[in-house]
Amino acid sequence: MSKILIHNATILAVDNAHGTTPFAGDLLIEDGLIAAIGTNLVPPDGARIINGRDRLVMPGLVNAHTHSSETFFRGRYEGMPLEIWLLYAYPLLMNDPIGKRLLYLRSLLLAMESLRNGVTTLCDDFFDPPAHDLDRLGTVFRAYEDVGIRANVSSAAMNIHTLDALPFARTVMAAELQSLLDFGPPMTAEAYVDFCKSAFDSLHGRAGRVNFMIAPSAPQRCTPELMAACMELAIEKHVPFHTHVLETRTQAITGHALYGKSLIAYMRDLGLLRRNTTIAHSVWVSDEDILLMGQAGVSVAHNAVSNQKLGAGIAPLRRLLDAGVTLGLGTDGVSSNDTARIFDVMRIAGLIHSVSGPEYDKWVTADEVLRMATIGGAKTAMLEHITGSLEIGKAADLMILNLRSYPFLPFNDAAKHLVYAENGSSIETVMVAGQVVVENGRLTTVDETAVFAELAELVPAWLEEHAELERRNSVFAPAMAEIHRRAALAELPLHRYQGDLPFHGTPVRRG
């Protein structure tokens, strides 16, 4: 592998020694790893030398939670809470699965946009109903392998009927509509684990950077047997147990309605709060929930943009951080966010939590947000020993930004510039495992123009088919709207949800 010396740069390591304080120096890359960091390093024979003057070198960003299956729905939906939006982005009534070429291009497009915007690692909670197919999962792996990104990829599972995972659903939905939702026998825990073991055997570790992770969709959507089997395998394989918990108020009602306790307490009782546990969202968590999460050492992927677009609420970041919960940042899918840019999530996360109350010394800081976007995200992916910071022996997953650009002039504080001013426009070079995948702002691994042309040719017809699917599924919208309304009116033990989150502080009560 080639050797690269980045000379005389401003380095932002996000390591234990320097944190988010930049320093001047050189960085040597050999065999895809960071071999040395220092000053006046001597370039080895044959090394490529990159002039780092007026350049910032920092770890690549980590997208801790996204869904490649939404990539073609950019700019398609708005003004819908999650329970209604799901009808259109993840329809109950389905067509045949997307064709393999479009499946490849859809995954490729997400990775291309990610790399162009400094994301070197993504966690793709890939959902591909109606069945788990190793060849189709392999198509996603191949796209990420080809483009050069680091990725954790799941084949998300659920085996509880949608209507049995929602409060009020069987009551509010007409019987004739319920009869349309016959999905056949549910998948068993044994069948899913067998599939996952096959994925580990044939796909895990492809190109040394594309891995398989375990992803039961949510505790209310999976049987205890399935979740227990998933956790056992996740621990055995040292990969995340990646799931969705308490994204919306409806889900907060769900736990109490179905189990007589919060979904976090339910997971605790099932032994599902572990170091391997990565929770997407964690918006409607109580103080008791947060205590359990911190004690267990779980991680949370905070989706600041998606949560606002779907009206889910504002996650209590300060309380989660204070409890010892590891925080990463996720875009969520491109449909509920409309970009794959973690820089957007950083800015929103840095701003929105300032509404948490008058105690401004508790507001989330730019340094904390930057850590979430890098080493925090790597920890949620259980990849902190590989990526997330610039340290000797770690993979050379990094980006180089031009400091002679609008977001950095005049240059004051690196973390604040990156969180509040940068949007990816200053990126010149991106590397993954020492391979230059973006140079002079252009991808080196794929022909962007050719990919865009093929997408323009193939996607419109597929979207026409999807529009018909949306019309078919719209018959369920009134019932989902009523579920959302009833959840908004239902009583919760709301004293548990107060603290740094005034969004929850003025509940609508029945009567």
TrEMBL record:
Q: Which CDD domains match?
A: ATZ_TRZ_like
| Segments forming domain Amidohydrolase-related | 56-437
Q: Which GO MF terms are attached to this record? A: hydrolase activity, acting on carbon-nitrogen (but not peptide) bonds
Q: Which UniProt keywords apply?
A: Hydrolase
List the InterPro entries hit by this protein, alphabetically: Amidohydro-rel (IPR006680), Metal-dep_hydrolase_composite (IPR011059), Metal_Hydrolase (IPR032466), MTA/SAH_deaminase (IPR050287)
Q: Does the keyword Cell inner membrane apply?
A: no
- Can you tell me which family this protein belongs to? Belongs to the metallo-dependent hydrolases superfamily. ATZ/TRZ family.
Q: What is this protein called?
A: Amidohydrolase family protein
